[in-house]
Amino acid sequence: MYPQSVDSDTGPAEIEPIIAFRDVSKWFGNVIGLNKLSVCIAPGITGLLGPNGAGKSTLLQLATGQLLPSKGTVEVLGQRTWNNPWLNRRIGLCPEQDALYEWMTGVDFLATCARLGGMSRTQARQASERALETVGMTRHGNRIVAGYSKGMRQRTKLAQSLVHDPQVLFLDEPLTGTDPVARHDLMDIIQRLAGAGKSILISSHVLHEVEAITSNIILLNHGRLLAHGHIRQIRDLMDQHPHRIVLVCKDCRALGASLIQWPPVESIHLQGCDQFLVVETRQPDAFYAGLPQLALQTNQQITEMYSQDDNLEAVFRYLVPT
Amino acid sequence: MPRLTRLQSAWALYSFSLRQHRHGKRWITMAVLVLLPLLLATLSRATDPGVADRVLEFDLAFMFIPQGLLPLLALVYASGILQDEQEQQTITYLLLRPISKPLLYVVKLLAAITAAVLLAWVSTALTYAVIYAGHIHQTDAVPRCLQACLIDGLAVVTYCCLFGLLGLLTRRALIAGIVYIALVEGLLANLPFAIRLITVLYYTRLIAYRALPFVVSRPFGGSRNIAADAWHFHVSGDPTLAHDPHTWLCVALLLGGGSLCAAAGSLLCRNREFHVKTADKT
Description:
Strand order of the largest sheet of chain A: 6-7-8-3-9-10
Low-confidence stretches of chain B: none
Distance between the termini of chain A: 12 Å
Number of strands of chain B: 2
Strand content of chain A: 25-35%
Strand order of the largest sheet of chain B: 1-2
Oligomer: heterodimer
Mean pLDDT of chain A: 87
Number of strands of chain A: 14
Distance between the termini of chain B: 37 Å
């Protein structure tokens, strides 16, 4: 049984949504890609999360008009996406698949994409140079794409989605396969693009990547919407699950012995060769309020305390039962 | 969308598609195909210097090229117009542009036609050059070559439209195309029955028969029309083939059939999902 989604119909914001899925289902023969999905996405960066096969790419392909919903409607910027090429001037997609025209140079590929968008040769050249600069590929623009590293290919794919200066960007696993440096750079680029006023829907199955970019997320699993909203909001809704709090102290065993008798505490786990305690509680407010008093009473010095539940891993662990 | 922008997009797509045809392994196949009649002409000349120019021309430019080379050229270029992009997963870059899918198909079809027609012309011209080597200006080889090129072009346009549609109807378009070439254009077109009316080859042969003389002298006197014999045209009672479709009707049927296939293809594209599989798919 899945927890209720935070905002199943209207989304977290009251402002005009840029992307709206209304009761959307998509089947591929007997395989279901998306199942009765209703979600409205507000401007800004939104993370699209879910394990492989959750329906993230299907959602992006529906949003970019590549797929026709089997049921329901998909709108981006207030327009239907299916068979609406005019909308493509205002949206950009960085696809997941590592496919490029290998015989072209980076700048040639981008200029071609720009020209396919209706730009003149001069405009296309300028736009491609601008896009290359945005993704930090100016130095490599004249090299053949076949010789690009994975990071360079991801940047090039991102650049082609930007070359026509779209209002909304869809990024399908843009960080997959990149090294830590490229990953950091790409995350930085994505945040700069959002800062420049672009709305971005970024999909990933690596939770901490998305967490570093945005707190606003959509969680999918088996084609269903699990949750939509701010990570903290989602976590707050899951009161039926115990919160996990890590305590680091000098004598964890002694502290644990005291804690286990305390009503707010559900369970304790000594971990890291007794270096820290993981406490599970269903009353986090009572726990946080009473812990200083308990520490004083037992004369235990707690050197570090943090919640394991404010990150996406925890949210995901709760929402996607294994 | 403004008309000028749409035209610019379409022109960019056309030139890009032409550039695509110049890359990849397909070129090796194309080079072999295009040079094959040339090779055959050279071999025939080397092994049998006495063979009449007109006979060699007929065998290669009007039998081998239209029946073997042209449909294969068209099949290779047109059957993968969008299928190749889909298999290589690059179709996303085209679908995400402000170009409608029917226009995308038609423009890419035009680029495929251009590439196939150019190659067909090169092959025909080179074949004529070898057949009439040394005395090309002393004969009517140049105007005959030009007419042969025009007829070849017409056939290639029709084949491209047909195989383009086939590429949308089946994933195994190459196999289906080869079966079509062998059965319909190879077998049915050579049967002296009305069934050949459904073949492209029949109409191109009619046009060629009426446009060009194929009369050769017999070794022991007299002459014969090698085309009428080989193509099973009933010329004994009807020397002008008045009961067969007129030349302009043949042209109209070929172009009309091609246009119908192109229109059907673009209509099919309009509501077709070109789904690119990702690791995300269950």
